[in-house]
Amino acid sequence: MIEIDFEKGNGLVPVIVQDADTGEVLMLAYMNRDAWLKTHQTGKATYWSRSRNELWVKGETSGHIQIVEEILVDCDSDTVLLKVRQVGGAACHTGYRSCFFTRVVNGKTEVIGERIFKPEDVYK
Asked: Which among 79, 17, 3, 6 has a CA at the least distance from the CA of 46?
């Protein structure tokens, strides 16, 4: 298996997550070595939660899991790109398909995505 350079980022590497079919960028997360290995073992996207300081299987609580279809690694082996099948339609914990649902135009923001679920209904 390829050796990822976790040391450069103090044990973490950024992970860009894309829809396998459309190429839409769904989110950015981080992996440590354990998350990297678990992702390979299970085929489900697993990340390192910096806020909770623990492994995080995407969708474990919400049911909106990410099935990994393809893994790409950048030229420096310090950034990962996951192409996934987003089960349930929403990658963002705020209920949107993508975490990138806000556009900045002339210094103002506008929501360009539709909310798929209400977080208060899913995260109790």
From this structure: 17
- Residues 31/15, Cβ–Cβ less than 8 Å: yes
To the question of pTM greater than 0.85 for the whole model, the response is yes
pLDDT, one tens digit per residue, over 8-30 is 999 999 999 999 999 999 999 99
Asked, for residue 78, whether it belongs to a domain, the answer is yes
Q: Is the dihedral of CA 112, 119, 52, 32 positive or negative?
A: negative
Report if residue 24 sits inside a domain. yes
Q: Give, as one character, the DSSP assignment of residue 114.
A: -
Residue 13's CATH number: 3.10.20.810
Q: Is 57 exposed, middle or buried (0-12, 13-18, 19+ CB in 10 A)?
A: middle
Kind of pairing between the strands at 13-19 and 25-31: antiparallel
DSSP string across 18-40: EETTT--EEEEEEE-HHHHHHHH
Query: In the chain, what are the helix, strand and coil shares in percent, each to the nearest 5?
Result: 15, 40, 50
**Domain count for the chain:** 1
| Residue 122 covered by a domain | no
- 32 inside domain: yes
